[in-house]
Amino acid sequence: MSPSILQPLVSGETFACDETADLPGVHGVPVARVGVSPALLLQLALRRLRGAAVPQAVFSRAGELFAEAELAGEPADEYRRRVVAATGLPHRVVSDGLRSVRDGLARLEESNARQLPAPAARVRWVPRGRTLGIVTPSNHVDPHLTWARALSLGLGVIVRPGTRDPFTPFRLAAALLAAGLPPQCLSVLPGAHELGERLLAATELGIVYGGPAAVSRWADHPRVLARGPGRSAVLLDRPLSPDVVDALARSVAADAGVRCTNTSVIRTSGDPAEVADVLAARLDAAPNLPADHPDAVLPTVSAEQAERLRHAVAGLEQAGLRRHSADAGPVPLPDGSYAARPVVLSTSDPRHPSLGTELPFPFAVVTRWSAADGLEPFGPTLALSVLSDDPGLPPAALAEPRIRRVVVGGAAPWTSGPELPHDGSLTGFLLEPKAFLPDKEPTG
Amino acid sequence: MTGYGDKDMATHLQDILRWHFGPGTGSPFWLKRKDSLGFDPLRDVVEFADLRKFPDLSDELRTVPVDDLKPAGSADSPFEVYESGGTLGVPKRVVEHRSRLEGVDWVETVLPAFGGGGHWLHVGPTGPHIVGRSVRRLAHLRRSMFFTVDFDPRWVKLLIRTDRRPLADEYVQHVLDQVETIARSQDIRVLFITPPVLEALCARPKLYGMLADRVTGIIWSGTSISGTSLRLLQTEFFPHAEVRGIYGNSLMGIAPQRSPEPGDTHPCVFRTFQPRSVVEVVDPDTGERVAPGERGRVLVHLLTRDLFLPNVRERDTAVRIVPGGPGDGDDLADVQPFRPASGAKVIEGVY
Fold first, then answer.
1. Per the CB 3.0–4.6 Å rule, which of A224, B60, B181, B308 could disulfide with A206?
2. Known InterPro entries for this protein (chain B) (predicted)?
3. Pairwise CB contact (< 8 Å): A19 & B232
4. pLDDT of A423
């Protein structure tokens, strides 16, 4: 088997598929060839899958290997190069992701404990299912911590990698196995979209990252957690001081604007057009650089994706949104990829149907907000940043079920910590409490 | 040459043409069309390549009265009517007395012993689909009891075409429930089954457990399967069974997977019952035969006394393999649905 083919990993065994697909980079040149797992391989993986109690030391060691070591013949630099080429994420974002996954793995056990209530004598928190299927995203390295957490809680895990980033799950799997993860705990099965659907239906628990269609497909399945567009927002009820502009620009464009916690809607009590002008001017300063440049801050996309994104932006302008940015979408770079230039739009209509659109680059729509509106205009919102002097707004936002994180002032909406839920508690999804009543103890 | 009294292609072809275009023996279908062909089939069709002069009239099989298809020379023989899958609309009808049964008798000689003994379970269509009779015949030739389940491939295709995939999945489970009921009390050794249903069977641990060690033969057919899946079936799921494929359809008959030969690069090579059922792998645009090892569209010629159907463009593609033995036709490998350039969605369903 050629080492440049990423082939399915079934409980520690690499399985060479005859069917493979080229994975083109954002510059149009193939970055890797990836095996296409048939549905039968999923059945084999399910048969072999067994969760196990895995000590924290395995995850800590795996994190170090993941961030630094040569794994399956792939040095960390080569891994970064391929992820950058295939996803168009700026080099720095991938490097930060490597470190953040390493740090997250080092604190998994602590984080698991801190996301649960204080231990009680006759209560055990146990997995809600023995197996987890997960369809991972390609927009960032961080979400891969999710399935490592499931492994640490004793579940057997099968990963269907996102199409553009099969590298991260294979590398993380290699790191975990090298660190001592029992092989039967994990399979990584690259394959078609349909394989992901079958996976989610076949395992006892499922997690899927995807667009609005994937989310609505699984919305009514309590055993599948669907993570889609964040529709993160800012409520701006303060004058545009330099600090405020900094906070806005960061929340829209940090990490190349690809996180689900990046702001895509800004509702302001000021003049939306003025806010949009200032924000657009700030974001327009981002340089046009290929993703592998150390100073790159914008995501890059393929010619095909660039065309789609330009079309999407044009559609929004036709729908009545006003553009304040210099560019109306991605622009070509010398290496054949396209820099996804920031796009800031505005509308005076706070109920414009295009509000809530999310695009995978620095993108935001600014609109009007008044105190009388309260939080009602905010629909499902992963992170709401409240920039206001009204002390009633943060508690009201916390009380709003559709708002999943509340950020006050200029803190980063994606701030993570061992005890912090991302969107509800992942441990709360993976585990449930059971009464455990040994006969040696009084039953009270 | 098949050992069933058939002559070489040229002789066989002349025999068939004289039969179907002879005023006393031919079918109304061909006799009515003889004068509008633009050539004289009895004079101008001498060798195999001349069959290309005929138009592909298979679409007419959707509506022609079956009486027109029956050769006058067989007036006293009982005939059966069978239909194609109906993937592309109204099914095509064929008539059949003995020709196809003799093809099945030949197929039986090509298939391995499958361990001998035990019963056969047909998890595939019966009813208007000729495959039901063919597999029943195979089982009988092996002196095995023949179990069937009700299996309606057209319903599944309709569900998929109308975007009701969950219902199609439910139907497959219904079929497998019936399989499980039989497997619970009966000594099933050979399965005829389609790849999607076999895959769904492997996803049911209890049913799979009942059959995995017991089954000594699996015949898959009806839809395509990837090489990787085939390997998984043989090595991981049914290591005690011989896994063989059959390619075919209502119009051409069944072509079993032949035994491996030195130099094979494909795990599964299908061979037709020449000279009665002959296939060519052709360029879909030019109609020219593709080079050996190349992929092309499957072109079928059915040359039997019961039915004459030259030049039928099948809805499959395959890799052309040159047969080791005599014969004008091709062997086939890696059969897949034909995807027209127009990008129409291909629905394979469960059969």
1. A224
2. ANL_N_sf
3. no
4. 87
